[in-house]
């Protein structure tokens, strides 16, 4: 029987009125029980157990309808053992005509006496196993959709299902479909949520992996970049050194050659000059102009000899042994030589000498040359009036000499080049551009250091460091 009244609430009310106290209390139990769970199987089990108690049957089973014309045993009363094999849970609908009939008509089907009913071979097989005498098939409909079938069985005796019982079973089955649906919905949601969670987890893992790879790659790239930068810097330094050394070597060879070539003619000239002098004296020549000419020849020879000696210094032909040198004394000698140039420009000299003695083993000639170059540059950098300050200090095994001026300073772009041979910003005839490159090689010979601090229009400080060398260190 199917409810004909379209209003479910009133149907339920009429139906409730027809129920006995026992039936009502069992139904209440089922409802309360169902409310405690959202698990699909559990809800089906509660319905199966409840309806079997309600209709006083020995067995109850709930099958769900599958897509391929088969049904699947979801739960049973009495409860199935958990190791009930999956394959036995399936049954093909066409092989069970009574089930097929119930599903097709969506109405209850009753077999009152199984021994008196024509049965299909499959139906017989099932009955042999369960030994059921009477059967009630109740199709389960969820929202107008066939969901499955509820099968009640009486084992001990032939059992007549009264129309009331059938109605109760039908009503309960259909009414409880809401609960089943809720669990299905929940189940779907849960699956959906689990799938989502799985996907999120998977994506997160993938992202983490990708991120890790990226971080590793970044770190590697940063490391490689740092290494490359260091290598590049080293390469630049090495290259500059090489170019510098190359230049110095070729320049040295050149100047040594020139010095040697000039020295010979200079000797002839000197010899001839001495001869001329003797001749003039013996001949008692008093011509003033002639003597003046002789004097200028002498001056020329002296200057040329001095230049040859500087060239020799530069080409390092002159390998003078290191002797004890007093730096203060050497600087003072240089200042003496430059005295006139300083005065002419109105330069004030400030000397802040360290009270400690500043002595080291060195090539005195070369140190003179070094300080002359630096002091001369300082002097030349001051257009008119200014200060040249010389400060000395000892620090552990180092002698520190700072020479600063209030001159025009060095342009930033020139700072790298000033020690290059022939680099000069001075007018032709004013500078050769060799002073600092010679000074630099002198510093190198003495294992010292030289640095320049300069600001345009403010001045320049040259910081020189020379190691304190003692006799036993030279070997
Ligand atoms: N104290 C200084 N103040 C300003 N510029 C300087 C100073 N010392 C060196 N320089 C710059 O360095 C260049 C090279 O110096 P140097 O090698 O002594 O050659 P030169 O003095 O013959 O030019 C100079 O032309 C000048 O531009
Ligand atoms: Mg110079």
TrEMBL record:
Reactions accelerated catalytically: ATP + protein L-histidine = ADP + protein N-phospho-L-histidine
- According to the UniProt entry, the coiled-coil residues are 193-248
Please list the residue ranges annotated as the Histidine kinase domain: 257-470
Could you state a single Gene Ontology molecular function term?
ATP binding
For this UniProt record, the keywords arranged alphabetically read as follows:
ATP-binding, Coiled coil, Kinase, Nucleotide-binding, Phosphoprotein, Transferase, Two-component regulatory system
Q: Which InterPro entries match?
A: GAF, GAF-like_dom_sf, HATPase_C_sf, HATPase_dom, His_kinase_dom, HisK_dim/P_dom, HisK_dim/P_sf, Sig_transdc_His_kin-like_C
Q: Determine if Endoplasmic reticulum is one of this entry's keywords.
A: no
Q: What is its EC number?
A: 2.7.13.3
Q: Pfam families of this UniProt entry?
A: GAF_2, HATPase_c
The name of this protein is histidine kinase
* Organism per entry: Reichenbachiella ulvae
């Amino acid at each position: 029987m199917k409810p004909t009244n379209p209003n479910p609430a009133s149907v339920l009310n009429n139906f409730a009125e027809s129920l006995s106290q026992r039936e009502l209390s069992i139904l209440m139990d089922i409802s309360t029980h169902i409310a405690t769970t959202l698990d699909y199987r559990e809800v089906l089990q509660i319905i199966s157990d409840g309806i079997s108690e309600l209709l006083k049957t020995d067995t109850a089973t709930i099958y769900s309808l599958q897509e391929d014309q088969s049904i699947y045993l979801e739960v049973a009363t009495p409860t199935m053992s958990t190791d009930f094999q999956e394959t036995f849970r399936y049954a093909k609908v066409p092989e069970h005509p009574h089930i097929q009939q119930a599903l097709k008509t969506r109405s209850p089907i009753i077999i009152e006496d199984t021994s008196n009913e024509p049965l299909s071979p499959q139906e017989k097989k099932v009955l042999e196993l369960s030994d059921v005498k009477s059967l009630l098939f109740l199709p389960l409909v969820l929202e107008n959709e066939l969901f499955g079938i509820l099968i009640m069985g009486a084992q001990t005796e032939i059992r007549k299902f009264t129309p009331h019982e059938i109605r109760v079973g039908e009503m309960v089955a259909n009414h409880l479909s809401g609960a089943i649906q809720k669990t299905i919905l929940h189940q779907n949601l849960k699956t959906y949520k689990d799938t989502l969670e799985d996907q999120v987890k998977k994506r997160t893992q993938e992202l983490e992996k990708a991120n890790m790879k990226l971080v590793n790659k970044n770190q590697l790239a940063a490391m490689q970049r740092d290494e490359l930068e260091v290598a590049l810097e080293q390469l630049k330094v090495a290259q500059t050194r090489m170019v510098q050394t190359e230049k110095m070597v070729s320049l040295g060879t050149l100047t040594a050659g020139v010095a040697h070539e000039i020295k010979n003619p200079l000797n002839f000239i000197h010899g001839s000059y001495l001869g001329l002098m003797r001749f003039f004296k013996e001949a008692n020549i008093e011509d003033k102009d002639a003597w003046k000419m002789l004097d200028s020849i002498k001056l020329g020879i002296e200057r040329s000899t001095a230049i040859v000696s500087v060239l020799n210094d530069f080409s390092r032909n002159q390998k003078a042994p290191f002797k004890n040198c007093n730096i203060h004394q050497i600087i003072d000698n240089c200042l003496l030589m430059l005295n006139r140039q300083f005065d002419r420009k109105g330069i004030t000299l400030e000397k802040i000498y360290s009270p400690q003695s500043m002595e080291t083993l060195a090539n005195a000639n070369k140190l003179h040359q070094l300080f002359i170059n630096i002091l001369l540059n300082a002097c030349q950098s001051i257009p008119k009036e200014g200060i040249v300050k010389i400060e000395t200090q000892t620090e552990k095994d180092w002698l520190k000499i700072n020479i600063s001026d209030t001159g025009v300073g060095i342009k930033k772009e020139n700072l790298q080049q000033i020690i290059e041979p022939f680099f000069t910003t001075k007018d032709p005839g004013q500078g050769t551009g060799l002073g600092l490159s010679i000074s630099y090689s002198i510093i190198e010979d003495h294992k010292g250091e030289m640095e320049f601090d300069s600001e345009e229009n403010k001045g320049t400080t040259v910081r020189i460091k020379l190691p304190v060398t003692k006799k036993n260190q030279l070997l």
